[in-house]
Amino acid sequence: MSSLLSSYSRLLVSSPRLLATSSATDRNVKHHGKPSGSPHETFYHSDLLVEQASPEEMKPKPAKDAILKFGHLYSDHMLSADWDDKNGWTMPQITPVRNLSIHPGAKVLHYASELFEGMKAYRGIDNKIRMFRPDMNMARMKRTAKRAALPDFDAEEAIRCMADVIRLDQEWVPRSTTSSLYIRPTLIGTDPTLGVGDAHAAKFYVLTGPVGQYYATGFQPVSLLADSRYCRAFPGGVGSFKMGCNYAPTIWVGKEAVKRDCQQVLWLYGNNEEITEVGTMNIFVYWKNEQGENELITPPLSSGLILPGVTRDSLLELAKEWNEFKVTEKALTMPEIEKALKEKRLFEMFGAGTACVVSPVGKILYHNKATDVYEEWKIPTMKNNPNLMQRFYETIIDIQYGRTTFRDWMREI
Amino acid sequence: MSSLLSSYSRLLVSSPRLLATSSATDRNVKHHGKPSGSPHETFYHSDLLVEQASPEEMKPKPAKDAILKFGHLYSDHMLSADWDDKNGWTMPQITPVRNLSIHPGAKVLHYASELFEGMKAYRGIDNKIRMFRPDMNMARMKRTAKRAALPDFDAEEAIRCMADVIRLDQEWVPRSTTSSLYIRPTLIGTDPTLGVGDAHAAKFYVLTGPVGQYYATGFQPVSLLADSRYCRAFPGGVGSFKMGCNYAPTIWVGKEAVKRDCQQVLWLYGNNEEITEVGTMNIFVYWKNEQGENELITPPLSSGLILPGVTRDSLLELAKEWNEFKVTEKALTMPEIEKALKEKRLFEMFGAGTACVVSPVGKILYHNKATDVYEEWKIPTMKNNPNLMQRFYETIIDIQYGRTTFRDWMREI
After folding, report:
1. What is the pLDDT of residue B240?
2. Is 60 exceeded by the pLDDT of residue A20?
3. How far is A331 from chain B (nearest CA, A)?
4. Under CATH, what is the fold of the domain B222-406?
5. Going along A24-76, which residue ranges are E strands?
6. How far apart are CA B217 and CA B212, in angstroms?
7. CATH 3.20.10.10 in chain B, residue ranges
8. C-alpha dist (Å) from residue A301 to A52, A235, A270, A306, B232
């Protein structure tokens, strides 16, 4: 950590690029081998401008034992870069977290020209700070940007810039192995014209903030509302991209779930009621299949309905590495789940996502579309022993907090 | 007009509520029969605060013959009101159009907590300014707000406030019977927390701006890309609400259409390839059905796939009033259209929406999913004589510009 710190201090001291020097002329200087005047296809870490928060702008850090409600607290600094279709990207900059000045006609406010990522940095038991698989999140963000008709950028440059803002706010990275620093890269269309079409201007920015566990109930099994009258994603849509538009329609449905004492929604698709996702997470089922094999199942990406989650991928990779049970990406329907429950073949069901790693399912409140009756299905996830979900959780957090290593999943900053 | 103007001047002169007097205390005073301290369930026209633009802030109006590109030009003033879950709505205010100051973690920027309306005011041939069926738009906006988990408000209060901002910017309402003042009511979730859930704070605002005809090609037939690999809306989704999230996924598909020399997308749904909408408009087909009856068809609202357009409703009402041909709301599939074209029974196909009233379809570029070949279907809309689409257009604009009246569709401001 100390070497990182000193390298950061050098950056602050030696960088000739203070914010005040930024100008249109600067942006068009010949560098990075680009001819003068052609639009910049990415922002560059080497251009990073830093405006440090003044002591008055710095916020008090939360107490060590504070309950960190997800997404309520932000670190002192943010990263940002602007884009327009004539000039391409500006230099990236780190500034204190400040309100954005957005034209009321900006595309992001009308047509949901927006996308985001969710990722985390962890303070390891060796006090080093590491990001978990940031290359996966940036690759997904680039794919999403293309689908959302928002501008592309270089993933590695973005990761380096993010590492710098985390380094600057390193005191915001919790000294705890149940908490972490949530990282929220965001890309929005900002040009103030009301035609439904390409954004001609955009802003990339990254917020960070300390978070504890996502669910207020902690590591407790959740109850899910499963009602095929509500649909999250569909073929020909954008369910496999992390666009903001996938979330707005779920909020009201989430409230309907809460009214029925459920914490999350189990999203179903199609006449056969395939399970697709749970809340904002991917879904996993561990069972004994009809052939008598122990099998871990998650819905496949091929349908276009499923967000390619980084935790999802990580659990699949770990399970394949262990090679102790069958690992399958395929559709699984509510009738199959009901049958397995009745035959006591269903061991565990859990969500998987960045915010919580895994989240056990304890109950499904199923709206039976044939009878219009809500049925309560008990899911024995917490009773299964040895517990696969728990093993995934412990393996992943051991990797995230530096107790062990696995491939190149952790990137030290 | 002159009486409206003088009443507006009185408002400016006599209103004791200048912006500088707005404060939390003011907002909690007992009025409108509400007990002190309880949240305001709407904003009230009688509370409207007006901050007039300074001469320096006023923009030059476009020349009479200027080409008005849709959504590129805004009038001088905007209307806004803020909401939070503790206090409810603030007093509404009219201010110069200014950038919004939005926290980078605001829900609107991440989860598309946003919705809007599109409506218009017209300067009649008697120089009076009228809105077209604003009650329909406000009723839809309230329904959409509920689905988007954003706050409700009173429709009539909103219309009165909008009338005031239009009156203040009356010189922005074009003196032309091909142009009008576009009105964009917007509602966004503004609280800066990253949990996917209810917005605890929101902003309602209204922009206006002069517009000519929507399509750059003017009243020319458009070519449509019809490709069932892209889907706009689906059962269990929010296609029948004017949420921002319905638009972001269409932008990239629109670009694919342009690549194939089409101006818009004809949105198909399901295995039978039902036609649902065209671009951002409702779709109408006028044909001779298999029973030999002349029939106007548009897809029904019951599926939840179709936005309940105000122009859609207006055309249906007019056609029923005329009572000269059959008027049907039902699903219509691509195979049915193909058959009718072959049998020369399809007379006209056109979009219907606020921006353009009607928009003739001249061609469909159909991606045949069985053969993976793009087929060009010529649609004889412009050749049909007498032309139903044209009759709709002329009837509607005669109502909008005050040449004739129909029910209570026009509301003088």
Report:
1. 98
2. no
3. 19
4. D-amino Acid Aminotransferase; Chain A, domain 2 (3.20.10)
5. 49-50
6. 12
7. 222-406
8. 42, 11, 16, 6, 20
Sequence letter at residue A213: Q
> Cα separation of A286 and A391, whole Å?
13
Contact B300/B313 with Cβ under 8 angstroms?
no
Question: What pLDDT is stored for residue B214 in this prediction?
Answer: 55
The helix-helix angle for A388-400 and A310-322 (nearest 10°) equals 110
A24: CB partners within 8 A, 6+ apart: A87
Quote the DSSP letter at residue A382: G
Q: Which residue of A has its CA nearest to B267?
A: A236
**Angle A242-A208-A245 from CA coordinates, rounded to 5°:** 20
- Chain A residue numbers with beta carbons less than 8 Å from the beta carbon of B252 are 146-149
For the segment A55-84, the average pLDDT, to the nearest whole number, is 93
Locate A63 and state its tokens: 């107490």
Alpha helices in B15-111 (DSSP H): 24-27, 107-110
Task: Say which of A101, A182, A250 has its CB closest to residue B101.
Answer: A101
Residue numbers in A near B198 (CB within 8 A) = 251, 255
Q: Which residue has the higher pLDDT, A146 or B197?
A: A146
Has residue B219 got a pLDDT over 80? Answer: no
More confident residue, B3 or A188: A188
Cβ distance A161 to A90 under 8 Å? no
> Mean of the pLDDT values across residues A314-330?
98
Question: Which amino acid would we find at residue B299?
Answer: P
Domain B2-211 in this protein, CATH class: alpha beta
Q: What is the pLDDT of residue B213?
A: 63
